[in-house]
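Human:
Focus on the backbone:
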Amino acid sequence: HQELAAAVAEYQGTHRVRLAETATRYFQRFSGRNRRVELDEGFAVKVVEPDGQECAVAQLSQGAQDQLYLALRLAIADLVGGSAPLPLLLDDPFVNCDAERLARIRAALEEASVQRQIVLFSHRNDFAAWGRPVHMEEDRPSPAHANP
């Protein structure tokens, strides 16, 4: 039982560190700041400032929280997917981003889209230039199959 508990703790610790490191890279790229993402034993998230001061997620601006959650989603997809990059579905995730951070996020997502499919749902027309639009069309029965 002790060996199994130790193996579980080592496994969780390894993944926790890898997840935090990957999330940190994404978060720094999105935000343009040198903050570090850390996860405790229960995988609770906190942000550490360059001076070592810890910051709870709730203390971040809404825009910074959105960037952190996007960084964590990408990091989790990287960790879980391994050599098979998982697609990423985004539903209006950039509501609270300023133009500068939005440009950094776009650059990072364009780079990530080389290896993974990214689907962005948005009501904003300015995102149309970010990729290829997809339009849904209903299948219409041919006249020969129409009900009288």
About this structure: The longest strand covers residues 36-39. Strands lie at 36-39, 45-48, 54-56, 88-91, 118-121. Helices lie at 2-31, 62-81, 99-112. The chain is about 45% helix and 15% strand.
